Amino acid sequence: xxxxxxxxxxxxxxxxxxxxxxxxxxxxxxxxxxxxxxxxxxxxxxxxxxxxxxxxxxxxxxxxxxxxxxxxxxxxxxxxxxxxxxxxxxxxxxxxxxxxxxxxxxxxxxxxxxxxxxxxxxxxxxxxxxxxxxxxxxxxxxxxxxxxxxxxxxxxxxxxxxxxxxxxxxxxxxxxxxxxxxxxxxxxxxxxxxxxxxxxxxxxxxxxxxxxxxxxxxxxxxxxxxxxxxxxxxxxxxxxxxxxx
Length: 245
Fold this sequence. Notes:
Layout: H1 2-37, E1 39-43, E2 57-62, E3 67-69, E4 76-79, E5 88-92, E6 100-107, E7 112-116, E8 121-123, E9 126-127, E10 130-135, E11 139-145, E12 152-158, E13 169-174, E14 179-183, H2 193-196, E15 199-200, E16 204-214, E17 218-219, E18 222-226, E19 238-239
Antiparallel strand pairs: 1-2, 2-16, 3-4, 5-6, 5-16, 6-14, 7-8, 7-13, 8-9, 10-11, 11-12, 14-15, 16-19, 17-18
């Protein structure tokens, strides 16, 4: 009787272990699927999107916004709408393999897009309207229209270049089909389409929606890992409009 009881207990334990392992594998599969299809976190490594995004803002990205790809592939299972002007989008670098970038969509297919030396943008001969919102010793922040009459966002420009009597064009392109023009909000401190050209639709990975974590500094020797003693709590779980208020 004792041996039968011990055998029953062993079988019960094995069943429990199998259930635990199955539960763990299932949870990991759900998490990976969720990251593949819906949301994935990214960290901002540079100041090219200031004032909207700061270095070491950790953002969450809707990977389903523009379509769905095969995992670890550039092949689309299906595509949704093109990104809209003023979307903050994550995409594959045009010059460095394996690097992801975060910029703002400013030019759409078929449009004539010009970036002026002041940092302002002209689309099809119409300059996007701007309104000064704050000023520092060496820079000015503007509220820039998205040309749809509804959305605006903040940009940062050099004080020296923001109010020129003559405002020459520093970059101009007619956007090819299925391509986009991407600019940083920090207009005079950004490597973007003016450097590496338009971005193919196939390079788009998703739309950035907000900030879930933000830190002043990283862990020593690990530039993309947040130092928990330096968390910017006021920026956590915030939309991009909210962090600018």
